[in-house]
């Protein structure tokens, strides 16, 4: 297949036993080679937990309580990231899958020059490289993200937020990973800058051939820049579709609400006016469909039975899935 990452039945909890918060629930997700996959959902829906779970970077008390994450190396057998040794994981991160964390633009070390931070990443994975070669590569990486080489000598505070973000992206690309995961890299930035950065990432993806998982609240950005979109609610994926199809024909009432609450193009973010009520409390999830207390179409069944994520009857092929009782799904094992 052309899959590069396959997440199967992933479950992530914070804490153990009765105290556990079940933050990612039975998630199945496939990332294909060269695609941009957008992951959207309100705050607390589990987007970051999913991203950190599949790279095994969960902060304590996060624990993976089930599932597998198959990574398809070029030409080799798939390996389960969840079963890698620590040495294998170190080689996997950065070199195979790089992640740009939420708030990353503020995670550059303020006391070190940009050059030092870039060359440190290169050296950690290639200790035998010469200082001159590392510096040349650092300059090249800045060039990739549209920053002039003379910025190598800058300290982070001398750069704008957008530039710091680009430096982080350049750093993530340092070892030519096959997968780049960006967790809301741009929320603190101006919308215009957000668009520029995303456009650049998509161009780089085309030139360098990596795949992207892009996480954001802002569905309008995803519709514009991603190939496929997965929508999360209460720790589950409730809908997945190509971005064009999700935009034209959202099937899950929650996706519909998200699309109706596009933030204003300029100015501060608005509340999700399209969806009344607030996200579910993971400690006391509603039974049945967890969206039912907020759903304008809820029926009695919705409060009792969890809808299965499946391919809706009027679509052929597994690219389109939805978990909602309004949409009967195929039962032929898709
Ligand atoms: P946002 O859009 O705000 O970044 P998110 O979709 O990334 O939200 P997560 O950060 O993955 O959501 O959080 C999912 C759930 O897990 C939330 O209910 C959150 O309170 C809980 N959670 C996250 N981190 C921890 C933690 N370290 N300990 C306990 N619970 C946590
Ligand atoms: Fe609404 Fe029911 Fe569909 Fe859930 S399953 S989204 S409550 S109609
Ligand atoms: Mg998050």
TrEMBL record:
Protein origin, superkingdom: Bacteria
Cross-referenced InterPro entries: AAA+_ATPase, ABC_transporter-like_ATP-bd, ABC_transporter-like_CS, Oligopep_ABC_C, P-loop_NTPase
CDD domains membership: ABC_NikE_OppD_transporters
One protein family per Pfam: ABC_tran
Keywords on record: ATP-binding, Nucleotide-binding, Transport
Domain ABC transporter: 7-259
Alphabetized GO MF terms: ATP binding
Alphabetized PANTHER family for the sequence: MALTOSE ABC TRANSPORTER, ATP-BINDING PROTEIN, OLIGOPEPTIDE/DIPEPTIDE ABC TRANSPORTER, ATPASE SUBUNIT
UniProt-recorded name of the protein: Dipeptide/oligopeptide/nickel ABC transporter ATP-binding protein
Originating species: Saccharothrix yanglingensis
């Amino acid at each position: 297949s052309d899959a590069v990452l396959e997440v199967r039945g992933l479950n992530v909890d914070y804490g153990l036993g009765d105290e556990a918060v079940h933050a990612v629930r039975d998630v199945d997700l496939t990332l294909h080679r060269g695609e941009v996959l957008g992951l959207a959902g309100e705050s607390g829906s589990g987007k970051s937990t999913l991203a950190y779970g599949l790279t095994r970077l969960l902060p304590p008390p996060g624990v993976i309580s089930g599932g597998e994450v198959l990574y398809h190396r070029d030409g080799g057998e798939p390996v389960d990231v969840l079963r890698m040794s620590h040495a294998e994981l170190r080689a996997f991160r950065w070199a195979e899958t790089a992640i740009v964390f939420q708030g990353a633009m503020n995670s550059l070390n303020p006391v070190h020059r940009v050059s030092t931070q870039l060359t440190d990443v290169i050296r950690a994975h290639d200790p035998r490289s010469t200082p001159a070669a590392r510096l040349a590569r650092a300059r090249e990486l800045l060039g990739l993200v549209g920053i002039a080489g003379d910025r190598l000598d800058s300290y982070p505070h001398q750069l704008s937020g957008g530039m710091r973000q680009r430096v982080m992206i350049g750093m993530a690309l340092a070892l030519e990973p096959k997968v780049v995961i960006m967790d809301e890299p741009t929320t603190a930035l101006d919308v215009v800058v957000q668009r520029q950065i995303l456009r650049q990432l998509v161009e780089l993806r085309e030139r360098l051939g990596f795949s992207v998982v892009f996480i954001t609240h802002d569905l309008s950005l995803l519709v514009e820049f991603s190939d496929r979109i997965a929508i999360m609610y209460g720790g589950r994926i409730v809908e997945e579709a190509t971005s064009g199809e999700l935009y034209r024909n959202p099937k899950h009432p929650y996706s519909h609400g998200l699309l109706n609450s596009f933030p204003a193009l300029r100015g501060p973010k608005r509340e999700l006016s399209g969806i009344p009520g607030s996200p579910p409390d993971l400690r006391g999830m509603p039974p049945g469909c967890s969206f039912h207390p907020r759903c304008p179409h809820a029926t009695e069944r919705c409060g009792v039975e969890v809808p299965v994520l499946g391919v809706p009857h009027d679509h052929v092929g597994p690219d389109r899935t939805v978990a909602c009782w309004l949409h009967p799904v195929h039962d032929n094992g898709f």
